[in-house]
Amino acid sequence: MTELNTNESVEKKSLNFIEQIIEKDLAEGKNGGRLQTRFPPEPNGYLHIGHAKAIAMDFGVAAKYGGVCNLRMDDTNPQKEDMEYVEAIKRDIQWLGFKWGKILYASDYFQDLWDFAVWCIKQGRAYVDEQTSEEIAKQKGTPTQPGTNSPYRDRPVEESLRLFEEMNSGHMEPGKAILRAKIDMTSPNMHFRDPIMYRVLNMPHWRTGNKWNAYPMYDFTHGQSDYLEGVTHSICTLEFVPHHELYDLFVTWIKEWKGETDNIEDNRPRQYEFNKLNLNYTLMSKRNLLVLTKEGVTKGWDDPRMPTICGIRRRGYSPESILKFIDSIGYTTFDALNDIKLLEAAARADLNGRAQRVSAVINPVKLILTNYPEGQVENLTAINNPENEADGTHTIAFSRELWIEREDFMEDGGKKFQRLGPGKEVRLKNAYIIKCPETDYCKKDADGNIVEIYAEYDPETRSGMPGADRKIKGKTLHWVSAEHCVEAEVRMYDNLWTCENPRDAIKQYEDEHGTRGIESMRPFLNPDSLHIQKGYVEEWAAQQPPLTYLQFQRIGYFNVDPDSTPEHPVFNKTVGLKEKK
Question: Measured in Å, how far apart are the chain's first and last C-alpha atoms?
């Protein structure tokens, strides 16, 4: 009996179901043993974290099995597309750490698709239909009732060819005619009921100019582009399962057009589908995200409250944390609503090893060390990251007047309160043990608010000195020198939505109230999704470049915002140090 290789068994079990299929296809020599995938976004908006799951799959399996993944823009809707989105898509993919083989466009295949459509008409497999959209919708039937044939279904081939040319002339009004595939109006598959192949738009394309006025539909573009491009594995999300048969049929037809009748089932793109990435308290729809930006609910596509990849990047998530999260939830054939806390946990685990530790006080109250020499300044050593010695150290100024967090002092905290209070000792991070007097320990304003706290320091207890080992009951507090810190803007974020599943909540509201767009979203938007606080950070933190990963000690993980300057630093809170209860 052959002894089981335990490591190999574990490795096999760790493969997701698509990787298992790909290994089987490669082992059986399908498509000549080649692996070629593609990531085909439509450049009509910025990518969101849901796209990151598809990116990780398409690019990831190609890299893992020695294949290639092309980036192909699905640019068949020129009225919604823009080069701004193309460049943003490229940046996001590169930031996630992936490389494409070629950058291609669906518009690269417009001439091929047109010629193929003409062949379909000549073969009696397509016709020009001049019904209205309402007539076509009624005539298609329902999932339980067959459709009825269009009155134009059997029009002469020559007439359809002439009208098809007219559709692209620029003189036909949009909506007057479409090109439909002639398949089966009684098919139980609604997509087989003479689907639309071309429609008239009469508008220039941002890549092809005025050459085309009639443009192919997605179903008549996607599979054929895969085939013409040499894609072996067309990996999509579950909503494309109903399109599966039509995809295969059009690929079979185009292979016939190309004369590949001897091996019609060989060397075709093989379709596999996996579940989308859905997060609670998150809305992931480019159409709806565009509404949020246009209505000023968010400050652009890269607002840190947005689920866009650029927004998540600005918020302070690392690409590694996103990929670890995606790997943890896995790929299945069942849709699920994932808990956003899993994403936040992945961020904490990753940022703990890469974030630079800094001192920042975001709810400040002044602490005066009454026995510390006036005018004296010490440059103390602070470790940048205790998880990574190679990150080194920096210095932080220490002086008589400091800022500490207001919640780190309590007049009547009792025995369980282990921070600063009358008669209590605490350690200041990287510095000294201090003690608050029993009386005359603070100064208050006219409203009774504490404006100054007084304490004495023990000069023998500085970090690194023998006296630093003295045991005390109090905790270690962070601080900044009042004279050597920089005032900072700290942006604290919460979920943009108050309901767990905003997509379904918005749809239900639309159905009940007959509203659309922002009016259907407002009832579910969180009015407290952004709080801007003024705080103080040590000088070293203020000098860090944008997108630097930081840990504000005892507070959470933060990122330097692109708006930040050394004179006016701005920080975005990524996640807290611990999960919110």
Answer: 53
